[in-house]
């Protein structure tokens, strides 16, 4: 035996000491590096947990009407809204030590490494639930060392900043279950047609097996493989103490009913309305496109499904399938501005252009109520009279002569009241009123009613020659229906983020912008288009639909060469309907000229079916009602063949009695009747 020399011994000690020192330095460096990683992770703080999720849209009764996604179904639910059996099955098969480790299962990693070495291939995974969640949240699913290092770092950050329940909830909401379903809620609805909270043990144990290989273990792909995987999961649940052996055996024997259908509609409900909602999210709530599409928002809207279906049904019923005419419809609750129904065209797939919101069309005579509100403010009353006859207006400022015409060139050729002029839509009366008030008056009044489109300061403005939007006209009439309060068209009542936090909630605001007494007087005048007592040289404009109506309404029709309108309201609902061609082609067929009125009448009746019949209620003060003779607006006597109860702003009601129908009138009365005074407007407007 060779004895080690003193020199050799010293050399060995020297190497050993160097090795120990280097090892200590290495260990210290590793410790410093590890502590540095932990410190850096702490400085960075909690990583965001937001992942792409479907934004969901709901009707006013909570019914899901649509979603925004990129082919991926994602719905976030809290851990309390997931079946405990699914939670336990997932933990049991994926990471049984989840609640005890700190992101990495060292024992499992060692076992996986040994198994891989023995097989000379990667045969066993060791990723914990936290690691898988980190990968799903932030990383690509490649197999590079760079990705693995990033995954480890994100795992540390998750474990340092979130509770185990937060991590488990996030994991269950992000894993892929196949067929476009991400997360337990989408998967549960797809495979079993129910919420994740309602899954049975049998369903939960089968669902928990799918993420290992959706193409292999999905029951829709292979029931045999799915049942084999389910048996393994149930066995692990027994082994880990979650269930009893008999319970597992019963669950495994159960026959499951599969649906294989995503519950959200393929064809969207009210697509024009939903587009308008998305525009509101972007332009009013200032959310970006990605958040709107994939932010997991829950958007609660004002849509009334019954009224929306009624609107679409009435349009389909009245508009001929062979016609190229288009329709825009907006229905609104006048109390708060909530949009209850919207149709922007006859076929969204062919044309998503929203004519209810985007199109600017001439309103025709539907602008007259705004003109006459301004007139009421200037002292006009329902009994104010002007002469209706063929008239050419001449102007001293060099403006060209203007000759408006009534429908079919029919004129009273005599005095008519404002109430009758509105009911029969007399254009001469409207233009005279417009010029008397000043051409700027209607423009300013339109702004007060919420119209934003630019209007030309011309005589023909009184006949609706400047374009408007359907939605703004519905809103303008809402001011009359609610007694003069400004409301804004509203599509969204509340928006929640994916965590259920409310990020927007509609506040009720109703500022008074009109005088309630004048608004009511005008509303009462607008009921006249359905009242045959106001027939004169022409029938009231609502005469063709009077027999279709079963409750009190106020409204106004309007038409131009290329546009047909009907706007009207009850105390509960305002609806504006436009019909016309996109290219501005003249409406020539008689049937097409009736579409707007018929759709409006049919919709209002169907939409309000089952609701109480309400009359327009006069304000407690500021108005007075008297019986007048419709032909001249004077106080009616018992001898007048037609008497109509009419409201006036208090103090402006007529004081003179009608003498046209007095029997056995004395000579003085007849003399007074024959010596009529010159009308007030003749002194101001000699051309009238």
TrEMBL record:
Keywords recorded for this protein, A-Z: Carboxypeptidase, Cell membrane, Cell shape, Cell wall biogenesis/degradation, Glycosyltransferase, Hydrolase, Membrane, Multifunctional enzyme, Peptidoglycan synthesis, Protease, Transferase, Transmembrane, Transmembrane helix
Molecular function GO terms recorded: penicillin binding; peptidoglycan glycosyltransferase activity; serine-type D-Ala-D-Ala carboxypeptidase activity
GO biological process entries: cell wall organization; peptidoglycan biosynthetic process; proteolysis; regulation of cell shape
Primary localisation category: membrane
Annotated TM spans: 20-41
Superkingdom to which the source organism belongs: Bacteria
Residue span, Penicillin-binding protein transpeptidase domain: 329-581
Name assigned to this protein: PBP1A family penicillin-binding protein
Domain Glycosyl transferase family, residue spans: 62-237
Sequence similarity: In the N-terminal section; belongs to the glycosyltransferase 51 family.
SUPFAM superfamilies according to UniProt: beta-lactamase/transpeptidase-like, Lysozyme-like
Localization annotation: Cell membrane
Gene3D superfamilies attached to this UniProt entry: Biosynthetic peptidoglycan transglycosylase-like, DD-peptidase/beta-lactamase superfamily
One Pfam short name: Transpeptidase
Cellular component aspect of the GO annotation: outer membrane-bounded periplasmic space; plasma membrane
